[in-house]
Structures are given as structure tokens and as C-alpha cells.
Amino acid sequence: MTPSSYAFNPPPGWLVPSDGWVPPDGWTPDPNWPPAPNGWEFWIREVSAPTVDTTVLAVTPHAPPPRPETPRVEADPAPTALKETPSAVNDADVRCEALHARIAELETEVKRLESTAAASVGAVDLDDERVLQEVGIYRYHHPLENAAEYKSQLVALAEQIKDMVKQGNAVLASDMFTFNNSLAKGRKMTAEFSKLMLRAYNAEADNCVRALRAGNVVTAKKRLDASVTAIARLGAMMEMRI
């Protein structure tokens, strides 16, 4: 039997016995266990755990350091109301007078603008030259404009063309055309397309007049008729025609 200061040390692969286990007489290891390595020590000396001193040392509490005294700040006395000096009163009066003068100037300017706007309400902003130029009609000097026989006829023809353009009779189109399911957008598009077509026709007419000779009157008229037919074909969706 081994001394009590030794403990059984099982080799690797053997069952680990409980603490203090001692093999009985005639005990043999299980034949299924692996053999012990050469020189294996089956008994090893037990090492006792060191004793830990659990004595609690008494700690003397230290008093907290004294807090520094905060200096007392005396509140300032309530401010007294400032008395207006005569110079301050005079400055305020000067500023008020300047503001009143500026207000009077602005009121005068407003009245002037209102009177100007009221006077221009009845005026019609209609520049004949600009209206004619939008559709491709430009004022030029005709070779016969100074001839007494043709001067009055040229003036009457110019006025007739101007009235047709201003009244919208130079090019006719439907006012029920819609665009994106909107009648307003359709009418706007029709008006713009009418100006474009009328501008193209007037350009063709201007070229015919400038190139007109005694022997090509019929050719010039055919060119204008072809232009009218083309505009009617292109503007068929809007029922447009010259």
C-alpha cells in the first residue's frame, strides 16, 4: 500500500479515479485500456495548496479634504433708468423728420406711378410693324411707291394686308383642335402654327414680287398657288388654309 502522501496517476487512456482512490488487492487494469508508457510513474506525491491568509486588514477612513470656500459675489444694485439728455432728444427728432420726409417722397412717387398706369390703361399696345414682321411681312420700298398713279393703290393694299393680319383673316384654321386633351393648348398650337404657315406663304410671295417681270407673271402666280395648296395639305388636321 502507498503512503497517504501519494496519489494514483493513471496513464493516458485510463479511467481517472476519484480523489484518494487506492487499488484493491489483486486489482489489474482493464485489458481494453492502452498500455502504460515506459517509465510511467503510477504514484506521484501530492502537493498541498498554499495557505492563504484571509485576515482582513482594518482600513482607517480618511476624512475628505476641505472644500475651498467660494467667494460670495454681491449682486449689483438694480440699474437706474437712464435719463434722456437734451442732445439725445434732438437727435431723435432729426431722425423722425428725415423719415417723414422720405415717406412723403415715396408717397409722391407712388402717386406718380399710379397716374401713369391709369393713363396707359386705355392705350392699345399694338405695334403694326411688329405684328406684320411676326408673319414675315416687312416694309420695303416699292419701285412704284412714288408714282402718282400707283401710290394710293399701294397704300390701300398695305392697309388691307395689315387689317387681314390683325383680324386673323389672313390664315384660317379650326378653333376646336385639341392638344394633350386640352382645347386651350390646341388653340395656342394652332395660332403658332398659323403664324408659321403665313410666314412661309409671305416669304414665297415676297420672292415672287421681287423677281416679277413682264413675262413671268403666270409662273409667279403658279408658285403662289402651289404654296397655298401645300399649306392646306400640311395643315389639314387643323383645317388651316390661306
Characterization of this structure:
It is a single chain. Helix content is about 45%, strand content about 0%. With about 240 residues, it is mainly alpha-helical. Among the domains are: about 5-45, no CATH class; about 130-240, no CATH class. It is elongated and about 160 Å long. Mean pLDDT is about 75; it is low at about 120-125.
Helices and strands, with pairings:
Layout (H helix, E strand, L loop, with lengths): L5 E3 L34 E3 L40 H34 L8 H7 L13 H20 L15 H28 L6 H18 L8
Antiparallel strand pairs: 1-2
Helix pairs in contact: 4-5
What is the SS-derived class? mainly alpha
Q: Given the structure, what is the number of helices?
A: 5
Number of strands: 2
The termini sit apart by: 137 Å
Extract low-pLDDT stretches.
121-126
Q: What helical percentage do the residues reach?
A: 40-55%
Element order: H for helix, E for strand: EEHHHHH
Trace the largest sheet across and list its strands: 1-2
Sheet with the most strands, sense and barrel status = 2 strands, antiparallel
Q: What global shape is seen? A: elongated
Query: Strand content of the residues, in percent?
Result: under 5%
Report the mean per-residue pLDDT as an integer. 75
Rg estimate, integer Å: 59 Å
